[in-house]
Amino acid sequence: MPRLHRAKRELELLRRDPILLALLIFIALAIFIFVIYPLFEVLIKSLQTRDVEGLTLANYERFFTTRYLRLALRNSLMVGFTTATVGVFIGYIAAFTLTRTNAPGKPIWHVILILPVISPPFVSAISILMLFGFNGLFTRQLLGLQNFNIYGFKGVVLSQVFTFAPIGYLTLRGVLSSMNPVLEDAAMNVGATRWQTFRRVLLPLSLPGIASAFLVVLIESLADFGNPLVLAGSRFPMLAPQAYLEITGSFNLPLGATLAVILLIPSMTAFAIQRYYLQKRQYVTVTGKPSTSSSKIVTRSMQWVLMGILGVFALFIILFYGTILMGAFTLVWGYDYTLTLNHFIYTFSVGFEAVKDTLIVAILSTPISGLLAMMIAFLVVRRTFPGKGALEFSSILNFAVPGTVVGIGYILAFNKPPILLVGTLAILVLNFIFRYMPVGIQSGIAVLQQIDPSIEEAAQNLGADSVTTFRKVTLPLISPAFFSGLVFAFVRAMTAISAAIFLVSAKWNLMTVQILSEVGSGRLGVAAAYSVVLVVIVIIAIFVIGRLVPSGAATSIIQVQD
Amino acid sequence: MAADLQIVNLTKEFESFDQPGNKVVAVDDVSLDVEKGELVTLLGPSGCGKTTLLRMIAGFEDPTSGDIYLSGQRVNDQAPNQRNAAMVFQSYALFPHLNVLENVVFGLRLQRLPSSEVTARGERVLELVGLDGLGERSTSQLSGGQQQRVALARAIVMEPSILLFDEPLSNLDAKLREQMRIEIRQLQQRVGITSVYVTHDQAEAMSMSDRIVVMDHGRIMQVGAPLDIYARPRNRFVADFIGKVNFLTAQVSGPKQARLLDQQLIVDDLDERPLGQEVILTIRPEAVNLRTSGGHLPGQITRATFLGGLVEYEIQVDSLGEALVVHDANPVVRGLHQVGETVELELPAKALHALVEG
Lengths: 562, 358
Ligand SMILES: Nc1ncnc2c1ncn2[C@@H]1O[C@H](COP(=O)(O)OP(=O)(O)O)[C@@H](O)[C@H]1O
Ligand SMILES: [Mg+2]
Description:
The complex is a heterodimer. In chain A, the strands form two sheets. Chain A has a two-stranded antiparallel ribbon. Chain A contains 26 helices and four strands. By secondary structure, chain A is mainly α. The longest helix of chain A has 34 residues, at 67-100. Chain A has helices spanning 2-15, 18-46, 58-65, 67-100, 106-114, 123-132, 137-142, 153-177, 182-189, 194-223, 226-231, 239-248, 253-278, 300-328, 342-348, 352-382, 388-397, 403-413, 425-435, 437-448, 453-461, 466-477, 479-495, 500-503, 511-520, 524-548, and strands spanning 330-332, 336-339, 415-416, 419-420. Chain A starts with a helix and ends in a 14-residue tail after the last helix. Chain B has two domains: 3-239, Rossmann fold (3-Layer(aba) Sandwich); 244-354, CATH 2.40.50.100. Chain B is globular. Chain B is of the alpha+beta class. In chain B, helix 4 (115-128) packs across helix 5. The model of chain B has no long low-confidence stretch (mean pLDDT 91). Chain B has helices spanning 50-58, 100-104, 106-110, 115-128, 144-156, 174-191, 202-208, 226-231, 236-241, 331-334, and strands spanning 5-15, 23-34, 39-43, 65-70, 73-74, 85-88, 162-166, 195-199, 211-216, 219-224, 246-254, 257-260, 263-266, 278-283, 289-291, 297-306, 310-316, 324-329, 342-346, 353-354. In chain B, a hairpin with a 2-residue loop joins strand 4 and strand 5 (73-74). Classes of the chains: A mainly alpha, B alpha+beta. Chains A and B meet through helix 1, helix 21 and helix 22 of A and strand 6 and helix 3 of B. Bound molecules: adenosine-5'-diphosphate (ADP) and magnesium ion. The site of magnesium ion has 3 residues of chain B, from helix 1. Magnesium ion binds at residues 50-51, 167 of chain B.
């Protein structure tokens, strides 16, 4: 009853700021239509079959009685846990080496390590195919192996580790660099050895962060579509590509939806643990003062060991990207290594439609996604209104929902009145806007929480309404988060595949989808050329966005609240 | 004439930070009128609800119950940006991405006034606060005192009907603080702007205010002019919070008379009370006269602290529980008493005050 009373009073207060109220209703409605409703449609579809009226559990029954489908779940989980374990291990070594030692060339290491983050998630899969496939450079040309088989578990895991360990690295880097190194000095000061300091102080403190990184990589791996499609092979079914194949191959939409729901369960579980259990347990020992450690937690020889491990990993990344680059200039990879520009000529002539469409989709969705994310962060941190928790939850829900599920949801939800979007540009743009908002929202929330709220109150006090306050004060103040939100949205719009593959049409195609179809028809050179063009576009875009969003004043503006 | 600001039975409850589900009453049934041109201080220890009260006036907090009137108009349902109340924040809350002048004219710009008028008014106010010529500076290049002045200029340029200050000087060093007190008070009187000023510093409150509102645990303890509050506190809390004080437990022994040990004391402001009733008397340290003979109470000096302009003595009076604190002025001329010396204390009738509440 008191809760109801409070909600009523909150609504009354909202009425005195009508623009805010309108904005809120608009955002809530948009999130409902483009996030919640498609998921609901997937769930409903999974309870229908093609031949029976009404709702039924027949699809789930079929899932549990079909060995091949059960295998898909088992394989996806197996790959997910393996990738997450290895990825977090490598990610931790990288984060530790680059934050806690004085290894030379840190910026270069960093750039190499995040290369996979800014390229389509299946680039390494294509390289692996080019290097270790039936006609691979290593396996066939150099070693002369006749029937080496890279497909299946080992191929997918190998490729995913290189794709997702960098995400583990970025997460853990944040965790480690927010821990005050003076703690390590303190431990060594009371007589702990380096190993004890690591074991008893640093490791326990970073444990919640490690668990969190593990779950994030697990979510990414489960949702991954490109690597399994290229490298799993038919004898190693996995959930995400299987759902796609059920729909596009066997035209069994209900079964595809069922697989999507089943895929959703482990992803959502991991997300819930990460968000509601681990995030509260992360130790942040930021004091506001910059602090550096005077004692070093690793010896010189240990530092070389760490850098050795990191070096091998980085070398592989370079090898993979070098292979792609080489492949783009090679006539027929595996048979005829003559240099050629043919693939680029194709990409820029006949194949340029996909490049153009991708750019249009990315350029349309990026600013909207970034702006919407900042608005939601502002509303969640700075305003009270009924249903705030629900709005926050559903706005970041898509972080954990595999793209395959979203893609199926969109074709189910928007292929019929009142909202008929299938086959249009709008469905691609809307999908990207709402799919890649969560990262912007979360970094917006994090930055806002560090900014003294009285700066925004001062604006209101001087006569600014909510929208003016947001435009003239909040947005300039959170420009670093806005920047990272924009970059993320753009990169993902350029590189995403799992949802997009359901939504492309003859009229609107995307580069990633095109790359996969080139791989499918064995034209690796063209796929490689597309990949190169894509990575170059992304790198240029990051610079351009950096220019457009002034974040120079960013560091001086964060005033810590009294 | 109606008061400029009227607060009627205002209460604010929060959900407790530590124990969700529990309630914290931050402001408890507060009523107060502030007249036009007056500067009223809200004074009280940290956590007594001063900021919350101020934020309700500005519209940042929504009262749980009670009403707020600005210039006779009920503003409970007005959003902060619709209220004609300007606030000077404790952390200054300057806009870091704007220069000094743009900070000051932020509010004017929103009113879509002609740009030349905006700039002119901004510069006039900058001059008023002594920042002329610094308009183009970035706020991060200013000293704490200058930032404070920008915050002040930004508020008064709006010509608000009321100015709200939340501990505006707490981030400055002691010397600058004293100087700014005087400046703010002079400016406030010159512009004639009604002000509510929050502080936990009693010296600041006494030096600036027309009236002081002493608060504790969300409630008003006493309202009055600074001298009134200092000389005639209602209760122990107020007496203690406003500077040093001695408490003496005595019995009513006649009209304006009280008995302390074997002494009859004359207490000018003792109202009619039943004979023999216990009464708590207060006297400030500087009001007690030290004599060599002929005082009311004999005592022995147990501590002497030289403070420059005055000497603080702690004096133990036999059969009186607590030691008394006595300030003796002008030690250069009058000399120092030594620890162990016996002295006589005189308690003037005019300086003794009987607390209304025990
Ligand atoms: N947003 C809030 N939520 C819960 N409790 C609060 C909140 N704001 C203030 N309080 C509590 O209300 C009381 C009064 O706070 P405040 O008005 O800030 O005091 P003051 O300004 O006098 O130091 C304190 O106990 C404080 O903890
Ligand atoms: Mg306060």
